[in-house]
Write a structure and sequence with these properties.
Among the domains are: 6-68, no CATH class; 86-249, Rossmann fold, CATH 3.40.50.300; 328-417, Arc Repressor Mutant, subunit A, CATH 1.10.10. The chain is built from 20 helices and 13 strands. The protein has helices spanning 45-69, 86-97, 113-118, 120-123, 146-156, 172-180, 199-214, 231-234, 238-243, 254-267, 274-284, 288-304, 312-325, 328-336, 345-354, 369-376, 382-391, 419-429, 435-441, 450-462; strands at 6-11, 27-32, 35-36, 39-40, 102-107, 135-139, 187-191, 220-226, 244-249, 271-272, 309-310, 401-404, 411-414. The strands form 5 sheets. It has a 5-stranded parallel β-sheet with strand order 6-7-8-5-9, with helices on both faces. A two-stranded antiparallel ribbon has the order 1-2. Strand 12 and strand 13 (411-414) form a beta hairpin. Helix 12 crosses helix 13 (312-325). The longest helix is centred in the N-terminal third of the chain and has 25 residues, at 45-69. It is globular and about 65 Å long. The relative contact order is 0.09.
Length: 463
């Protein structure tokens, strides 16, 4: 009787390091050799190892491709990876094309301002103009001065830095004269402008915008920063307001978020089921960063299972990955921690995450009543949770909320826009939100044909 060699290879789930031969989901496969025509065929350990490592490498390659498509840790840097924002793109491009006009691009953190700034050079390329850079981006830092940011700008533009800058700061006219001779003209983007905390620098930049506009210098400035208004970035300068185009960057529409996720998976030969796409879209709350994060994690889960279609199961598993590793974990834990088991801090914070918000992320105390009542199973009025809202603004609870307005007309906003989606995910994972409420939150909108709208949006992006 012919001998029979049996090779047992155990694939271990959720491990990127192969056990024995390779990593895979909890599957045990036995390879047996048999006898045919008097010859014994044996699967050698080397063959099995090579087979499984090939499988492992294929998965790794797919994950790497997915990680190049969905980039939660970095802004988009290519026009073909940018979705939506047609109005903001139009406003920025037409403004910098207008003589004497500059741009201030502002909005919440995480809504895609830097991504738009990154692709500005591609957007400005005229038809038939050939290839060249049309924009340079300078990242501002805390402690920057008028001299330091313009030194970096001149270096990026390959302009000679005047020797006198070594012992003195330039003035707005010095900048104007230098940029007037710049050929070809450029767009200079000053990103994260809100980090500059020196009043003299802010005043000098405002004067620079005015003198560049007054003298119709062809090189343009685009100021990008986290802010609710232009005044918070450049101050109360009426003359500056006449020289700039204010472009507010709101949160993305659900359709735009759907486009990011759907198109991203298609680029790597994958697709996503409708209910999974709706779940990712609604959790993201208009923030492209979160859409990229959830899509990436869900895609990895699908690849681990050798699947090319992302389902709701993969998204739910991705939620667990996000909760275990996201940087908002500490902020959430610090905000809701309490020694009392009957504390409402977690429920109130989750309710805040569920409130309808305006384009800048603000909500009212009155808007918290409905989600909190649904969470608790009985009616709650403002006096029952007002102290919790106040506590969320305290240093002891991490100042996770900020407030504007006057008494009886206060509006609240999460200081970190990435915290509300995390709070929502924590509320679901911790069973704080009843199942019927969760089902309602992620149910398809009955009056909206998302397939048609998404197809139209993708068609527009190809034009």
């Amino acid at each position: 009787m012919a001998t029979r060699a049996v090779l047992l290879i155990e694939y271990m789930r959720d491990s990127h390091r192969p056990t024995h031969a390779c990593a895979h989901d909890s599957v045990k496969t036995s390879f047996a050799c048999g006898q045919r025509g008097g010859l014994v065929y044996e699967f050698s350990t080397a063959f099995a190892y090579s087979h499984c490592m090939t499988d492992f490498q294929a998965k790794l390659d797919r994950k790497m491709a997915l990680s190049r498509t969905f980039t939660p840790a970095a802004p988009v840097s290519r026009r073909d990876a940018f979705s939506g924002r047609f109005q903001q793109i139009t406003d920025v491009v037409t403004a910098v094309s207008e003589p004497g006009r500059h741009v201030i691009l502002y909005g919440e953190r995480g809504v895609g301002k830097t991504s738009l700034a990154n692709i500005l050079s591609e957007l400005l390329v005229p038809v038939g103009s050939g290839r060249r850079e049309f924009a340079k981006r300078i990242t501002c830092n805390a402690g920057d001065t008028f001299r330091s940011i313009w030194r970096r700008a001149f270096q990026a533009l390959d302009l000679e830095i005047p020797e006198e800058w070594s012992y003195g700061a330039p003035n707005p006219d010095d900048i104007r004269i230098a940029l007037s001779g710049l050929t070809p003209s450029m767009v200079i983007v000053f990103d994260e402008y809100d980090r500059i905390d020196d009043d003299e620098t802010l005043s000098a930049m405002a004067d620079t915008l005015k003198t560049l506009s007054d003298h119709v210098v062809q090189t343009k400035l685009v100021i990008v920063g986290v802010s609710d208004s232009i005044e918070a970035l450049v101050g109360e300068h009426e003359s500056v307001k006449r020289a700039v185009e204010e472009v507010q960057m709101p949160r993305m529409s659900r359709l735009e978020i759907m486009s990011i996720v759907d198109r991203g998976f298609r680029e790597v030969g994958m697709n996503i089921e409708d209910d999974a796409l709706i779940r990712v879209t609604k959790i993201a709350e208009g923030l492209p960063t979160y859409a990229h994060l959830l899509a990436l994690k869900a895609g990895h889960r699908a690849i681990d299972l050798d699947e090319s279609t992302v389902s709701l199961t993969h998204v739910d598993a991705a939620v667990a990955d996000v909760l275990d590793s996201h940087m908002s974990m500490a902020a959430y834990s610090g905000a809701v921690q309490s020694s009392r088991s009957d504390s409402l801090y977690a429920q109130v914070l989750v309710a805040c995450a569920l409130t309808p918000k305006d384009g800048l992320g603000y909500f009212t105390a009155g808007a918290v009543r409905e989600p909190l009542s649904r969470i608790m199973g009985r009616r709650y009025e403002i006096p029952a949770f007002a102290r919790h809202l106040n506590a969320f603004m305290s240093i002891e609870r991490g100042s996770v909320l900020q407030r504007i307005g006057v008494e009886r007309n206060f509006r609240y906003r999460f200081r970190d826009p990435l915290l509300p989606p995390y709070a929502l995910l924590s509320g679901i994972a911790g069973n704080l939100i009843p199942e019927d409420y969760v089902s309602e939150l992620f149910a398809p909108d009955p009056d909206v044909d998302w397939d048609e709208l998404l197809a139209n949006l993708l068609a527009e992006e190809k034009k």
